[in-house]
Amino acid sequence: MNDKIKEFFIITLGFILVSIAVQYFYVPNNISGGGITGIAMVINYYIPSIPMGLLMIIMNIILFIVAFFVVGGNFGGKTLYAAFGLSFSMWIIERFLKPHALTTDPMLAAVIGTTMLGIGLGIVFSQNASTGGTDILAKILNKFFHWDMGRCMQSVDIIVVILCAMAFGISKGLYAVVCVMLNGIIIDKVIEGFNSAKAVAVFTNKSDVIKSYIINQVNRGCTVFEGKGGYTNEEKKVIYCVMDRTQLIKLRAYIKLVDKDAFIIVSEAHEVLGQGFKDIHN
After folding, report:
1. What's the CATH fold of domain 196-269?
2. Above 70 in pLDDT, residue 160?
3. What are the residue ranges spanned by the domains of the chain?
4. What pLDDT, in 10s, does the model give residues 142-159?
5. Cβ atoms 126, 186 nearer than 8 A
6. Which of the 8 DSSP states describes residue 96?
7. How far is it, in rounded angstroms, from Cα 53 to Cα 28?
8. Can you give the pTM of this predicted structure?
9. DSSP string of 211-273?
10. Each residue of 196-244: pLDDT tens digit?
């Protein structure tokens, strides 16, 4: 139960960051970051009497209904919560906080807004949820045109960028292109940050003590392989384990004390599934 509460708390933090980015950086500067928020911005530009948050709620309802019949109802409670939570939080900001531009420099607005947007979306995606909108449109395109999902999402964003350019001018359309490209990079980095760990291979003659330290002090499991030096033909044990950065610092300091001749390889593990890490069934 506590894990579920934590997941929804993190998702809430994510879509609030997205709301702030859109309302305080994108909308006042007529810059679109793609997706359903970009479509809502364009419609709001032509029909300002309809709040963006309300537009997003209406579009999400329509898209979820259409997608339910076209591609099936495999969206999940977390995605429904994130999609409508984002729409509702944007409506709250519009209705009660009267948002204004925190900067009128379009480049600053694009960079800072997209950084905040990407972090927020990355946080939501890291919890196996999404904010709906673009994902649903991409799934519908995938159903009818049989394109891969990446191509479908790019196609949706391209359409939004074109609409943005038509509504706000070519210059703002080009800013939208920058936002879409930067957003993808930031989302990937945030997700990697949530899921990444260090993969460590230790070549040593003191495998027993190092293995014991990893299990009992670092609180991680490990696998021990038999190895042989290619130059010396000496038998060596290879200990392989995955851990976080703090645990690696402890292990490295210990190995330095017990086996100065050890050989250590450390690499990034961008996603780790299984016991002690991300649930393999999610």
Report:
1. Alpha-Beta Plaits (3.30.70)
2. yes
3. 2-194, 196-269
4. 677 777 655 677 778 888
5. no
6. I
7. 15
8. 0.72
9. HHHHHHTS----EEEEEE-TTT--EEEEEEEEE-HHHHHHHHHHHHHH-TT-EEEEEEES--B
10. 789 999 999 899 999 999 999 999 999 999 988 888 888 888 999 999 8
- DSSP secondary-structure letter at 29? G
Instruction: Please name which of 192, 34, 37, 35 lies closest in space to residue 126, comparing C-alpha atoms.
Output: 192
Cβ contact 15:35 at 8 Å: no
**H or E element in which residue 154 lies:** helix 149-168
For residue 96, which of 44, 23, 30, 14 has the smallest C-alpha distance?
23
3 state SS of 46:
helix
Residue type, 271: E
CA-CA distance, 138 to 158, in Å (whole number)? 12
Percent of the chain as helix, strand, coil, to the nearest 5: 65, 10, 25
Q: Which helix (H) or strand (E) holds 1?
A: none
